[in-house]
Design the sequence.
């Protein structure tokens, strides 16, 4: 994005090891304000790990991660300040089962953003409207379908008014008929100009919403280009093979 | 199997007496037998003058038994929760200290711990306090001794009641047991919950307080109640240092009057009834949590 020269997320020369496996290897990535970046790759390629390094759910062994001008990997950094501005949506939803849908969306607003009850309720209800399930405000998460749970999880993250949203395989745990309702919410969010980093296997979403698609394999960033270029003219053999496997049928 | 056949033959009634009867015979007979035995024993006690005398001697000890149980359980819960949090902490000092404490107290028999607290630790602690006059005066004031009667180093071992010593011993022993219960409860909550809470900007303490602990405590409520029953029974060990609870009173009465059968009958009756009420509470709690889980 040429209009904003300073990246909102900057990943520099990052390495990460799990015991004797190298999860990330010399990864460099800049993400600019308003961009939608989709990360694809075979399982175990380090794409989720990379995403989780952005809000320090994983620590890195080498290199630097900057988010909105704050160096995330420095020990002295107050990581909670960073996380307030970075929403995250998980594969397994991770809603709080002991709280109702509304309480799920309100809790962090109250205790982290220090909003009053009235304001938090209003924000929560508005977001439930936005994700299309206002009638589920007072039920417990276990009463919802997977797609509904994931939409609540998105609303919960959005309630903090984050500058960036991270999605870690948000549709991988869903039944096929529920994938669309979640992707629709994500598409709408992308259209509003939210900065999004999405790890997914949904190539349709990548084509429709992404500004850039990153292909990762064995902890390395292999390709980084527009969806049209990457899907139709992959530059590397590894990417070509991966795409042929998932688009074969 | 037989249920379906019976259902086919007899149309379903609102109140199925046969089914209810069968259910009671299968699942509740023990309880009916228990109540029947209770009634029988109560009848025997109150028609026999000697047993009435035994009863009257022992029953006042119930309040001491219950007091020790409640206070010990209260402190054990606090100690257990803090220890559990220390044991899952990444801080090496906290982890090692708490693990040392748990392993030590789980490795010593309760009776030995009671004797140590009563005859070693309390006197030693008193000596330490007595060597600091200001602290000694302060504690005496706290104990309600009139200012003009306060003397330095006047606090003696005997000023510390047996019940207080026993409460320490029980609280620390059961604190060690219950820390394991709490730890298991906390670890039973999936990692995703903590990650979700932290990703929203909550601190570790906030995530524990609002997300992890409410779920964990709910899961371990039956195990806590179980520990409560065990603690109630273990208070009988307090008789070793002559705390006037029901076991001590029974020993006193039985050996003075040489009425062991009578004393032990009353004592067993009291313990069995105190614990059965608790056990019913545990069953009820488990059933409710199960129902809640299916509902929410």
Sequence:
């Amino acid at each position: 994005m040429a209009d904003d020269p300073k990246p909102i997320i900057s990943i520099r020369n990052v390495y990460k090891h799990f015991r004797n496996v190298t999860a990330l290897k010399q990864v460099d990535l800049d993400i600019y304000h308003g961009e939608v970046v989709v990360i694809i790759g075979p399982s175990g390629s380090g794409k989720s790990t990379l995403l989780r390094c952005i809000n320090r759910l994983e620590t890195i062994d080498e290199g630097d991660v900057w988010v909105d001008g704050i160096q995330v990997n420095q020990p002295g950094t107050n990581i909670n300040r960073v996380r307030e501005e970075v929403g995250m949506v998980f594969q397994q939803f991770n809603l709080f089962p002991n709280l109702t849908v509304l309480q799920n969306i309100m809790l962090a607003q109250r205790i982290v953003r220090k909003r009053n009850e009235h304001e938090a309720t209003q924000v929560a209800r508005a977001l439930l409207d936005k994700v299309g399930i206002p009638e589920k405000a007072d039920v417990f998460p276990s009463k919802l379908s997977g797609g509904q749970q994931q939409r609540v999880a998105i609303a919960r993250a959005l309630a903090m008014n984050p500058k960036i949203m991270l999605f870690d395989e948000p549709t991988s745990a869903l039944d096929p008929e529920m994938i669309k309702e979640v992707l629709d919410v994500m598409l709408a969010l992308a259209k509003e100009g939210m900065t999004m980093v999405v790890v997914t296997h949904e190539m349709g979403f990548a084509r429709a919403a992404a500004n850039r698609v990153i292909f990762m394999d064995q902890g390395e960033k292999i390709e980084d280009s527009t969806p049209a270029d990457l899907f139709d003219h992959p530059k590397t053999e590894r990417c070509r093979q991966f795409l042929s496997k998932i688009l074969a049928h | 199997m037989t249920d379906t056949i019976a259902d086919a033959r007899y149309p379903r009634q609102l109140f199925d007496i046969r089914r209810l009867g069968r259910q009671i015979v299968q699942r509740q007979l023990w309880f009916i037998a228990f109540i029947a035995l209770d009634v029988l024993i109560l009848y025997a006690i109150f028609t026999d003058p000697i047993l009435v005398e035994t009863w009257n001697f022992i029953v006042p000890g119930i309040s001491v038994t219950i007091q020790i149980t409640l206070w010990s359980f209260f402190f054990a819960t606090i100690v257990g929760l803090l220890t559990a949090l220390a044991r899952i902490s990444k801080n090496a000092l906290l982890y090692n200290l708490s693990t040392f404490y748990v392993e030590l107290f789980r490795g010593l028999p309760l009776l030995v711990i009671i004797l140590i607290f009563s005859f070693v630790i309390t006197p030693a602690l008193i000596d330490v306090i007595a060597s600091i006059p200001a602290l000694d005066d302060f504690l005496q004031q706290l104990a309600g001794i009139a200012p003009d009667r306060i003397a330095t180093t006047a606090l003696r071992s005997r000023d510390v009641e047996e019940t207080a010593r026993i409460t320490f011993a029980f609280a620390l022993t059961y604190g060690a047991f219950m820390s394991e219960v709490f730890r298991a409860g906390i670890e039973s909550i999936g990692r995703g919950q903590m990650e979700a809470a932290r990703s929203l900007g909550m601190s570790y303490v906030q995530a524990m307080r609002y997300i992890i602990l409410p779920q964990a405590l709910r899961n371990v409520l039956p195990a806590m109640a179980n520990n409560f029953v065990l603690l109630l029974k273990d208070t009988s060990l307090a008789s070793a240092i002559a705390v006037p609870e029901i076991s001590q009173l029974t020993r006193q009465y039985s050996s003075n009057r040489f009425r062991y059968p009578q004393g032990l009958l009353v004592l067993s009756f009291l313990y069995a009834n105190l614990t059965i009420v608790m056990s019913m509470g545990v069953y009820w709690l488990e059933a409710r949590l199960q129902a809640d889980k299916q509902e929410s």
In short: The CA atoms of residues 128 and 136 of chain B lie 9 Å apart.
